[in-house]
């Protein structure tokens, strides 16, 4: 009984994990067609066509893998989809291209210097594709024969007969191989591979020639052709790891276990130099190639002048990734200086960047995004409620409206309805303030708050900003 209950709990946990909804979980790509033209609504993406088209071009550059050290800046008001576009690019790149995402402010919270944090982020965004040749034996099992010693003790011995369409060979089996064969339940008619270096056995499927003389094969049985040619083959295996992973594994003070704890600390520059030299050697020998990936730095105006000049240099490196940054700041002070510049980024760095602007959404687009979010959160919403919510998004902010979907959903369920109505939206709109109304509230009651600094409201904003 208890075990059944436990299993149920585990099952529920499993599904909640899968269905966890994040701010950008509805984004499944950039929503472009084959000629890189953005579809109006696709892969969870709505509108913002120019920026998405530009992102598509950048994506193409990255996929070709030829360019290094470019910088792209996504600039636009809050809630115009800058982060969403970066996430879409990450999805579209696929798992084999490294994509690292960080917020500008993260560099201040780690227990390492700012430049070390940036170096690690950069090296996480560069992949090394390592090619290895291994020898394997691949064939169809003709017979497995295991002999137990008559006494029942002592080592087992056995023979394995494998064939291809052209040849057949008998192999002697040691104790360890017999164990593997038992564990994998290898029988006559299976097509298997044996890795010669490790002795690992993997089943590829059952041979087609045995398809008929077997009633007991389940629906999940895979049938494959009997291999051709020699039994012994060379096979190329490819792994992609990031430069940062190679650094950590080779850093004596930390070791590879640090990769799991995430607590990698600072890595000595000698280690990195050695790794760079080794990777260069591998590249020359054709054993490895570099896969430049993407480093995404959100809220990039949070970086200071030291970080900016470090990035400026880092971009010149031959192994630099493509750096995508996002900011919602206009002309503002560069952190760590008294200079003012566009987006709070030094002019010399700005000069290297391709700037992509994101623009505020029209009502139609807001509605479409909200609709997609309702689906993502499994929330049924009446048409007039959605219209009101769209109005709210236009007058306050898209993010605020998106937050209201969740709360309105809860409120509607409370009154045992499974559709959000206008009244639910009204209810949560009065329960939760948006930024403007919160400001209004603070102004009215400022005297009753602690640490009230709001002499002149504009000044106060400046202080919290810097
Ligand atoms: N074009 C879009 N298509 C679909 N969802 C979007 C789009 N733009 C923004 N969103 C969603 O709206 C919310 C706010 O956008 P976000 O990307 O965080 O804005 P920004 O980073 O520009 O401040 C996020 O949940 C985001 O996924
Ligand atoms: Mg953002």
From TrEMBL:
Subcellular location: Nucleus
GO biological process: DNA repair; DNA repair-dependent chromatin remodeling; negative regulation of signal transduction; positive regulation of DNA-templated transcription; regulation of canonical Wnt signaling pathway; regulation of cell population proliferation
Gene Ontology CC: histone acetyltransferase complex; nucleus
Keywords: ATP-binding, Chromatin regulator, DNA damage, DNA repair, Helicase, Hydrolase, Nucleotide-binding, Nucleus, Repressor, Transcription, Transcription regulation
Domain of life where this protein originates: Eukaryota
EC nos: 3.6.4.12
InterPro entries: AAA+_ATPase, P-loop_NTPase, RuvB-like, RuvB-like_C, RuvBL1/2_DNA/RNA_bd_dom, TIP49_P-loop
Keyword Cell cycle listed: no
One Pfam match: TIP49_C
Family: Belongs to the RuvB family.
UniProt-listed PANTHER family: RUVB-RELATED REPTIN AND PONTIN
Designated name of the protein: RuvB-like helicase
Organism: Thrips palmi (Melon thrips)
Lineage: Eukaryota, Metazoa, Ecdysozoa, Arthropoda, Hexapoda
């Amino acid at each position: 009984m208890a075990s059944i209950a436990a299993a149920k709990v585990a099952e529920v946990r499993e599904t909640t994990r899968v269905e966890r909804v994040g701010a950008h979980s509805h984004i499944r790509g950039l929503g472009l067609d084959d000629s890189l033209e953005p579809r109006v609504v696709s892969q969870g993406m709505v509108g913002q066509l120019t920026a998405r088209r530009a992102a598509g071009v950048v994506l193409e550059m990255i996929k070709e893998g030829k360019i290094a050290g470019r910088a792209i800046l996504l600039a636009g008001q809050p809630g115009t989809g800058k982060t969403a576009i970066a996430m879409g690019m990450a999805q579209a790149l696929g798992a084999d291209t490294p994509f690292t995402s960080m917020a500008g402010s993260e560099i201040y919270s780690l227990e390492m210097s700012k430049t070390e944090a940036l170096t690690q982020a950069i090296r996480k965004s560069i992949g090394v594709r390592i090619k290895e040749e291994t020898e394997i034996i691949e064939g169809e099992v003709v017979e497995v024969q295991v002999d137990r010693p008559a006494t029942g003790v002592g080592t087992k011995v056995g023979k394995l007969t494998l064939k291809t369409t052209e040849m057949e060979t008998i192999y002697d089996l040691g104790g360890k191989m017999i164990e593997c064969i038992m564990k994998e339940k290898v029988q006559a008619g299976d097509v298997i591979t044996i890795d010669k270096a490790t002795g690992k056995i993997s089943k590829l499927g059952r041979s087609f020639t045995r398809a008929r003389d077997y009633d007991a094969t389940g629906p999940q049985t895979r049938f494959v052709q009997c291999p051709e040619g020699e039994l012994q083959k060379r096979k190329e295996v490819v792994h992609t790891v990031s430069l940062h992973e190679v650094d950590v594994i080779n850093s004596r003070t930390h070791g590879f276990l640090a990769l799991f704890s995430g607590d990698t600390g600072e890595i000595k520059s000698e280690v990195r130099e050695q790794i760079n030299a080794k990777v260069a050697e591998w590249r020359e020998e054709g054993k490895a190639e570099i896969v430049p990936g993407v480093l995404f730095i959100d809220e990039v105006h949070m970086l200071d002048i030291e970080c900016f000049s470090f990035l400026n240099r880092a971009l010149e490196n031959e192994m630099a990734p493509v750096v995508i940054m996002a900011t919602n700041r206009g002309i503002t002070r560069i952190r760590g200086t008294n200079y003012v510049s566009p987006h709070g980024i030094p002019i010399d760095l700005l000069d290297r960047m391709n700037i992509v602007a994101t623009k505020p959404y029209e009502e139609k687009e807001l509605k479409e995004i909200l609709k997609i979010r309702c689906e993502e959160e499994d929330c049924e919403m009446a048409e007039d409620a959605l219209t009101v919510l769209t109005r709210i998004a236009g007058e306050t902010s898209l993010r605020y409206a998106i937050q209201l979907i969740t709360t309105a959903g809860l409120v509607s369920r409370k009154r045992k309805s499974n559709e959000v109505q206008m009244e639910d939206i009204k209810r949560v709109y009065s329960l939760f303030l948006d930024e403007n109304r919160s400001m209004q509230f603070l102004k009215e009651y400022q005297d009753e708050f602690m640490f009230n600094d709001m002499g002149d409201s504009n000044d106060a904003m400046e202080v919290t900003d810097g």
